[in-house]
Write a structure and sequence with these properties.
Layout (H helix, E strand, L loop, with lengths): L1 E2 L4 E4 L4 E2 L3 E4 L2 E4 L3 E6 L4 E5 L13 E9 L3 E7 L14 E5 L20 E10 L3 E5 L6 E4 L10 E3 L2 E3 L6 E3 L14
Parallel strand pairs: 3-7, 10-12
Antiparallel strand pairs: 1-6, 2-5, 4-5, 6-7, 8-9, 8-11, 9-10, 11-12, 11-13, 14-15, 15-16
Bound molecules: zinc ion.
Amino acid sequence: MFAVPGEKLAEAEEFIPSEGAYEADGIVYAASIGSVRYDHDERTVRVVFPKRAPRFNVVNSIVYGRVAQTFDQYVVVELFPYNTKRYRLIPPSKYAVIHISNIRKGFVENARGEFGVGDWIRAKIVSIQKKRFIQLSTEGAQYGIIKAYCSFCRRPLVRKGPMLCCPRCKRSFKRKIANDYGNPKLPR
Ligand SMILES: [Zn+2]
């Protein structure tokens, strides 16, 4: 199981939060992005990100992040993880940009039609200028949204072809979706 920060993992009565997890009001949540590991003997739950973290500060590195803002011509991505003890390689900037020309192959009319604020994405660094201005690309089947929530009711969205659909309020959204949306494979 793949989790993103804030995702509910268990009741605190059932599992104790370990690495990458925390408890609030009797519920255990993910504090990190990664794979969820339940230890039924120790009654702990942790969220594990691969030990060999992506090399953030190198062009062609694969990065993970959350869409922070969307504009007509580009989107701003908050890179994750950032500035934590666990990761030695820290991106030169907390934020990166995906220009409309780097979203997908072919013509894209508006970047807002490809990503929503709060979407979790996998992308590739295409350039780093002045050691801090990072440009990302989501061109290619493995790049794009790996997890997203309905902007109206916050339910996890379900993939249907090129669309992401909300099972509750039935709204659907056209998006740049990664081919392993929903249960993404993380780098080893
Ligand atoms: Zn909804």
